[in-house]
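Thread title: Can someone regenerate the structure for this chain?

I was given the following input by a collaborator and told the matching structure tokens would be attached. They weren't. Posting the sequence so someone can regenerate them.
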Amino acid sequence: MATTDYDVSFTSGFTIDFSATGDAEVLQNVAMSISSVMYSCPMARAFAWDGSLLDRPMNIVTNLLASRLFNAITTFESRAEVVSVTFTGDDDGLSGLLKPTVKVRITSDG
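Best answer:
Regenerated them for you:
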């Protein structure tokens, strides 16, 4: 049986589809985990990733953020298996722009 990997990127201000099901629901949940910082969600303060990495050096942030995104996704969306985490951003490393893309594989577990 062939598996499909999906790239999920940071998206600002995306619309939540409350009727999403199946793969669309899983991918939406992964996108929410990537786009949300811990303590920013009322009634679910532990949701998402720990934002204490903000304003730290870029060469340190990429490794730590990859790990934190992995933990957030595996904790809050067990139907998604993280395959890889990559980053795009500024070329000079000075503006602090860093956008994660998480490649996930949807499993039947969860």
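The mean pLDDT is 84.
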